[in-house]
Amino acid sequence: MHAINGFVFGNLPELNMCAQRRVAWHLFGMGNEVDVHTAFFHGQMLTTRGHHTDVAQIFPATFVTAEMVPWEPGTWLVSCQVNSHFRDGMQALYKVKSCSMAHPVDLLTGKVRQYFIEAHEIQWNYGPMGHDGSTGKNLREPGSISDK
User: Fold this and answer.
1) How far, in Å, CA of 44 to CA of 118, rounded?
2) Alpha carbon distances (Å) from 81 to 2, 85, 91, 145
3) What is the pLDDT of residues 39-94, one digit of tens each?
4) Which of 12, 59, 65, 79 could covalently link to 7 via disulfide, CB atoms 3.0 to 4.6 Å apart?
5) Where are the transmembrane segments (predicted)?
């Protein structure tokens, strides 16, 4: 199983942001040699390691910050483009909203929020909504990809 912050199939909660405001994604790779990931931000452009791209490469035991200015409101997908990881549910949805009083990107002065994520092994419900956030399919249905 491959997850994003412990959630699979679009169940990661509260990834909300405002259009035309700078966002920083802090990405950390865990695992071993088979855990090479490509974080693909559908419909968006990132700046990472000095390059403009729509994907960030993440290797085990590496950390990268990707900066993004989302332009179009809507619900967007971030996913790992490694086929088996995507099939196993390594995907999340994030919402870009039209926020009132949006400041031009260059004039932003905002509050920096820090979130710390601890990793420890526990029994976990990887899909608490019970359905795939992208397709709406039931995750508990016998024979589904999540029924492994």
Assistant:
1) 28
2) 12, 7, 9, 17
3) 999 999 999 999 999 999 999 999 999 999 999 999 999 999 999 999 999 999 99
4) 12
5) none
- Other beta carbons within 10 Å of 90: 23
Residue 106, helix vs strand vs coil: helix
* pLDDT tops 60 at residue 136: yes
* pLDDT computed for residue 45 by the predictor: 94
Q: Which two tokens stand for residue 34?
A: 């088979």
Residue type, 114: Q
Tokens for 20? Answer: 């035309």
Handedness of CA 126, 97, 52, 43 (dihedral sign): positive
**How confident is the model at residue 87, as a pLDDT?**
92
Strand partners, 63: 28
Q: Can you list the domains of the chain with their CATH numbers?
A: 1-100+121-139 (2.60.40.420)
Number of residues in the chain: 148
Output the CA angle 4-94-2, nearest 5 degrees: 15
